[in-house]
């Protein structure tokens, strides 16, 4: 998608996805683990690890998010992704979250945060949901007749 | 992809993917379960069912395939997909395979064949592989900078 059609958070998400791909994680953006909860990026690692990344373009973008604590139970690791000029001191990193610095084109993992492995049943269900969502999206992109 | 850039088998695969989507299965084409083995279509159902579909455009396309028996151990159900004018009597349907009639735009399931559930560990590994492949492909389609 052309850059100018993307919102700032979406451009950061693209950079995050490129970064995570270089770490051998396959990414989907805007994933809905359960109704009413949408995460910016969900990434699936080679051993089935599930990471969630929330992208915040600026202070106001972060302070308006009242749902982020709900994301923690849907992943093994949770990260904030912010641009280099973001005031990182306002992020609740002591909650175990990791930190990614990202721009439109890439990024860097500054901190991994804590790992809190998902229960097996939830990992299984989330992996299946991720798989089906990814396949349906790529079918939608490939097949113009749909 | 424009129709005229697709091979006959690929056009049938597209019709199969549209059909299976209408049955709530998410599809990927050209999936490699293990090195040296490539299936035309792999589909993932709402309960995690894994189906494999081999698309044969004509008699010669079928008779030149010496690998199809290797596909059975990678799915819960296996189907042949052929165009309406295909000589279906040459297909080994007594092996438990299902049958799909398909063209470039859709199709119909004529027989479900037998269900032979995958062992749990293989289903888990295959679902993860499917998920990561689908996500990487959709990322490749969406992000022109990759």
From TrEMBL, chains A, B:
Pfam short name (any one): MmcB-like
InterPro entries referenced in this protein's UniProt entry, alphabetically: MmcB-like, Restrct_endonuc-II-like
Listed name of the protein: DNA repair protein MmcB-related protein
């Amino acid at each position: 998608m052309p850059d100018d059609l993307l919102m700032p958070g979406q451009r950061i998400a693209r950079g995050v996805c490129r970064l995570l791909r270089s770490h051998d994680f396959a990414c989907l953006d805007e994933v809905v683990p359960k109704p009413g909860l949408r995460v910016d990026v969900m990434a699936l690692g080679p051993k089935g690890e599930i990471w969630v990344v929330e992208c915040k373009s600026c202070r106001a973008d972060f302070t308006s998010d009242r749902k982020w604590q709900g994301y923690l139970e849907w992943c093994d690791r949770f990260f904030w992704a912010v641009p280099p000029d973001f005031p990182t001191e306002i992020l609740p990193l002591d909650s175990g979250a990791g930190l990614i610095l990202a721009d439109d084109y890439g990024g860097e993992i500054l901190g991994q945060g804590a790992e809190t492995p998902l229960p097996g049943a939830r990992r299984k269900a989330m992996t299946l949901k991720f798989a089906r969502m990814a396949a349906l999206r790529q079918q939608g992109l490939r097949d113009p007749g749909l």
